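Sample pair:
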Amino acid sequence: MQDEQLQEIERKACADPCFTEAEKAIIREIIRVYRGWQFVAKVVRGGVVVLGGLAAAIAAIKTIMGGL
């Protein structure tokens, strides 16, 4: 849904005659950078989940091995 909103903003900005071509390019660049940061945030969150799972697995294996 958020991507649709960004596309709508970009379409409105490109169609609006009050923006110059340079301003339209800046708006497109801002949206591109924002999408890039969204992707980075998703990757970081995924990495945290993977590291948490790995830490839990290591702790579980150590507990099991220590109990034998």
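Residues 27 and 63 are 54 Å apart (CA to CA).
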